[in-house]
């Protein structure tokens, strides 16, 4: 990575609800990544006192996913895009490192046997080339990248689609872009499973949960912070996992046991019974 390259984060949001969500996420990003430069692309200005370093108004676009306009217009040499329904709980600047060798980085979708993940655009793909979750993406600026993002935007408009991942997957397949696949802790979608994790797992870096944008407002008692979004025990367990993660805290010798698990003897006995071994 050249020292002269600019690095930054972008959000895209339409409507007051998503602007507020992006603001909450950006606060968590700045708390865990001091010095980060964060830009918002939106359809109206956020309230005074926001934490964004710059706010850009979206153009009147055919796209139903403003993230692609935000990525195309991003002013950085290397950009990390985050959906508004995320919380950042650790240093994620190492994602920029992947762009030394790759054009784009993202994580696989998690529920790959769900109806949503089986949606296709024009081509049927095997599970060995799954969708990429476009809620966390890192890109390196180039003309090829700009053309690719414009193509995704145009294809979505032509298909009148509000779902971007099947189109993104197909166009990525046809492109010559080099993609790095991020580990799941950089786009942690199964937040209910955090209590089953021990310190043998890498701690989640980015919590990405659609409950944050539930229309009924029942995501949590206080979904403006990660501590409010998670139950107290789960939040404390997450903090313990972060402190035990050797990539985040080099030399850490902390051990963390799962909060919830089936006792080992019972689990093995049940497994042997299911396998017909006892």
Automatic annotation (TrEMBL):
InterPro entries, A to Z: Nucl-diP-sugar_transferase, Nucleotide-diphossugar_trans
Residues annotated as signal peptide: none
Gene3D superfamilies: Spore Coat Polysaccharide Biosynthesis Protein SpsA, Chain A
Pfam families: Nucleotid_trans (PF03407)
Residue ranges of domain Nucleotide-diphospho-sugar transferase in the record: 80-187
SUPFAM superfamilies, alphabetized: Nucleotide-diphospho-sugar transferases (SSF53448)
Top-level taxon in the UniProt lineage: Bacteria
Name of the molecule in the record: Nucleotide-diphospho-sugar transferase domain-containing protein
Species of origin: Salipiger bermudensis (strain DSM 26914 / JCM 13377 / KCTC 12554 / HTCC2601) (Pelagibaca bermudensis)
């Amino acid at each position: 990575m050249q020292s002269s390259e600019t690095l930054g984060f972008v959000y895209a949001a339409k409507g007051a609800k998503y602007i507020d969500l992006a603001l909450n996420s950006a606060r968590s990003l700045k708390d865990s990544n001091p010095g980060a430069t964060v830009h918002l692309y939106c359809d109206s200005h956020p309230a005074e006192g926001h934490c964004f370093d710059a706010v850009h108004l979206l153009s009147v676009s055919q796209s139903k996913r403003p993230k692609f306009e935000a990525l195309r217009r991003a002013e950085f040499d290397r950009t990390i895009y985050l959906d508004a329904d995320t919380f950042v709980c650790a240093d994620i600047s190492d994602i920029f490192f992947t762009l030394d060798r790759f054009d784009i980085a993202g994580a696989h979708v998690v529920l790959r046997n769900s109806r949503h993940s089986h949606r296709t655009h024009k081509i049927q793909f095997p599970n060995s080339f799954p969708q990429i979750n476009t809620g966390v993406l890192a890109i390196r600026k180039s003309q090829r990248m700009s053309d690719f993002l414009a193509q995704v935007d145009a294809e979505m408009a032509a298909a009148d689609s509000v779902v971007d991942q099947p189109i993104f997957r197909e166009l990525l397949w046809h492109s010559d872009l080099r993609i790095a696949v991020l580990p799941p802790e950089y786009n942690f979608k199964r937040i209910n499973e955090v209590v089953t994790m021990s310190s043998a797992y890498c701690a989640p870096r980015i919590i990405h949960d659609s409950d944050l944008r539930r229309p009924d407002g029942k995501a949590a008692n206080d979904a403006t912070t990660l501590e409010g979004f998670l139950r107290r025990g789960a939040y404390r367990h997450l903090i313990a996992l972060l402190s035990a993660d050797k990539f985040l805290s080099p030399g850490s010798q902390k051990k963390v046991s799962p909060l919830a698990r089936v006792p080992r003897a019972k689990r093995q006995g049940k497994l042997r019974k299911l396998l017909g071994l006892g």
